[in-house]
Each structure stands twice: as C-alpha cells, then as structure tokens.
TrEMBL record:
<dbReference type="InterPro" id="IPR029028">
    <property type="entry name" value="Alpha/beta_knot_MTases"/>
</dbReference>
<protein>
    <recommendedName>
        <fullName>RNA methyltransferase</fullName>
    </recommendedName>
</protein>
<dbReference type="InterPro" id="IPR029026">
    <property type="entry name" value="tRNA_m1G_MTases_N"/>
</dbReference>
<comment type="similarity">
    <text>Belongs to the class IV-like SAM-binding methyltransferase superfamily.</text>
</comment>
<feature type="region of interest" description="Disordered">
    <location>
        <begin position="1"/>
        <end position="49"/>
    </location>
</feature>
<feature type="compositionally biased region" description="Basic and acidic residues">
    <location>
        <begin position="38"/>
        <end position="49"/>
    </location>
</feature>
<dbReference type="InterPro" id="IPR012340">
    <property type="entry name" value="NA-bd_OB-fold"/>
</dbReference>
<dbReference type="Pfam" id="PF02598">
    <property type="entry name" value="Methyltrn_RNA_3"/>
</dbReference>
<feature type="compositionally biased region" description="Acidic residues">
    <location>
        <begin position="12"/>
        <end position="22"/>
    </location>
</feature>
<dbReference type="InterPro" id="IPR003750">
    <property type="entry name" value="Put_MeTrfase-C9orf114-like"/>
</dbReference>
Length: 360
C-alpha cells in the first residue's frame, strides 16, 4: 500500500515529504533563513490584508470551524496527518473559503504556528495548521515556503487537493500563485509562478512572500511584460474559480466569532450536533449572507466546547447557535467522527447554500 501511495506523489512532494532528514543538520545549514521566515510570514499577511482591504467587491464566503481536540487521541503522527488531510480534502471539494482551527482551553490570540520552528513537539494546533496550509499551497511553492519539518513526514502520503490554483508546469491560467524572489527586476520584483521562466510584477516586494499574479493573455514569458499582483479573492470574483482556503487560529470557541477575518464578522452561524434539530436540505432556509460559518464539535460535541469557554459556559447551545442542526438523524453508528461529519454536513448544505447565494 505504501508503494502505491508514493507513486501518486509529485516530484516536489517526494522531495519534501519522503526524504529522511536530520533536524540538527537542517538547522545548521539554514539557520539564517529561519530567522527571517517569521518576518516573511508577517509581511505576507500584511500585504494580503492591505490589498484585499482596498477591494470593494464582496462575494459570499463559507467558513468552517474545527476543534483542535479531534487529533488528540490519534495513535500516531501518520494517523493524525491523514485526519487533517481528510478535513483539507472536504474543504476543497466543497469550495470552503476559510478553516478556523480552535482550541478549547487557550487564552492567547497569538497564532501558535511558527514556520521557522524545527521542534517536533509543537502544539496540536500548530500541527493542524501546518498540514492544512501545506496541502493548500501549490506543489511548486512548497519547498520555498515550507522548511523541512518532522511533522510533514507523512504529508506526501495524502491524496493531493488538486485545487484549481494547483497548476502543472505546462498549464496556463489567467492567474497563478507565486513567491517573490530575492533577485530584483527594474521597477519590480521577480516572482516564481511555477513556469519555465520567472515573471516580473510591477511592485517592489520582500522575498519569500506568496502572491497571486494576474498572468494576462500574453503567454510569451520573454516579452518583458510587467504583471500585476492581485488579491487572492480576484480569481473567484472575476472568473468564479475556487482559489483555496485560508487558515485561522482561535484560542476558544467564542474567539471564532469575536475575531473574525471579516470586518463585520459572520452574519449567519450554524452549529452541528446530534442534539440539534433534524431537517431535510429542501426544508432548510438559509437567508442571504455575506459570510457564513459552520461549526463542528470534537469528541464530546459542541456542547463540551461551549462548557469549556468561560464566555459561553452559562449559555445553551441554541443561544450560541440559533441554527443548531442534526444532519444525520438516522445514523447507524453511536458516534460520527468530526472528519466524517464535515463531509456529511458540507454535502447537506450544498442545496441550501446555493439557494441563499441565488437569492442574495
């Protein structure tokens, strides 16, 4: 089975995920790059935030919230990796825009994932986010954006997301994901977009930042045409293309709502639980929304997540989630695992969400 899985990997995945490595040797060879990576990550977030803030067009988004606790009882690193891979696959198949990974007992809003860290014993939240972001990143960018890490050892065994922005080297698209390079170009910056030649964008940017580049119709890479960096939402807004998901951390359930990525927060929130109301997809009416959030519970459900949150523990689940649904009322198993519930729920919501978007 292992050999069959390895055969389906791209060359880039094999180089990143399957080659054994020594953490101490890696640290020695690339220590300088590690010190920079935290700043690069912050630069990328600031750059994307500014460029999207100036974008007046708003399209409906769908987010899902997943508790970190679902990987707490996994028996091995490989099983934990596969579990996160299932969440990533579900999010991509159903065109989810954002995955919020939330803890049950943390208080700090600081993101736990440090891309420069080589520590094997990083928190469950950091592990979860690392795998999600790695899988969402096009293969040709992974070696630059993701330093080798112990917790990525089994990522190459996962089925690829094969999202629309994961272009092959021979494919042309109106937009491509790229990473800025150290080499400067006259009046701009060189960007590696996974083609035979690098392109030049009309902005001077720090190296190591992931950007979305508008490629235009001129397929001649030697013409010297300056390309434009656009918000990562542009492909979806202009051409209806799904362009992957963002990953956000929340220390607890209340922070999922209070610290939304969107300026005015989520305007419609749905909770899923075996204790919720059973409805059919044709009967569920979701109002027109700008930002929809669907929350999932862990081993003990959303009720336990609410009890462990000091801001919510006095509330009933239906106070936190006015729409509280049981999407598999006739289940044959006593329990439905969260990764299974995500697939079941997102399929269930396809019809109601489509109606809401059309009505909006």
């Amino acid at each position: 089975m292992g050999k069959k899985n390895k055969r389906i990997q791209s060359e880039e995945q094999q180089e990143q995920d399957q080659e054994p490595f020594n953490d101490a040797e890696k640290t020695k060879k690339s220590g300088k790059k590690r010190k920079k990576s935290k700043n690069i990550e912050e630069d990328e977030q600031k750059h994307n935030h500014v460029i999207e803030e100036n974008n007046p067009k708003i399209i409906p988004t769908v987010s899902i919230a997943i508790p970190v606790s679902i990987i707490a009882n996994t028996q091995s690193l490989e099983l934990a990796t596969r579990l996160v891979g299932q969440i990533a696959r579900a999010a991509t198949i159903y065109r989810i825009d954002e995955i919020v990974v939330f803890d049950n007992n943390e208080s700090s809003l600081e993101e736990p994932l440090d891309m420069s860290s080589t520590k094997e014993n990083e928190s469950n939240a950091a592990f979860f986010m690392r795998i999600l972001r790695y899988l969402e990143t096009p293969q040709y960018l992974r070696r630059v954006l993701f330093p080798r890490h112990y917790n990525l050892r089994f990522a190459g065994l996962l089925p690829p997301l094969d999202a629309p922005h994961h272009f092959r080297k021979h494919e042309w698209g109106s937009y491509r994901e790229g990473v800025t390079l150290e080499e400067k170009a006259p009046g701009g910056t060189f960007v590696d977009v996974g083609l035979s030649k690098n392109v030049v964008v009309d902005q001077v940017l720090s190296p190591g930042i992931r950007v979305t580049v508008a490629m235009g119709n001129d397929r001649s890479l030697s013409s010297g045409v300056l390309h434009h960096v656009v918000p990562s939402t542009t492909p979806k807004e202009e051409e209806g293309m799904y362009w992957g998901y963002k990953v956000r951390y929340a220390p607890n359930l209340s922070s999922v709502f209070e610290h939304s990525s969107y300026k005015n927060g989520y305007d419609y929130v749905i909770g899923t639980s075996e204790h919720g109301e059973a409805v059919k997809p044709s009967e569920l009416c979701i109002p027109a929304f700008r930002h929809l959030l669907i929350a999932f519970g862990g081993l003990a459900g959303l009720e336990e997540c609410i009890k462990m949150d000091s801001k919510l523990q006095e509330k009933d689940a239906r106070e936190v989630f006015p729409t509280y649904l049981n999407l598999c009322p006739h289940q044959g198993s006593r329990t439905i695992r969260t990764e299974e519930a995500v697939f079941i729920s997102l399929q269930f919501f396809q019809e109601p969400i489509s109606r809401a978007v059309q009505n909006g």
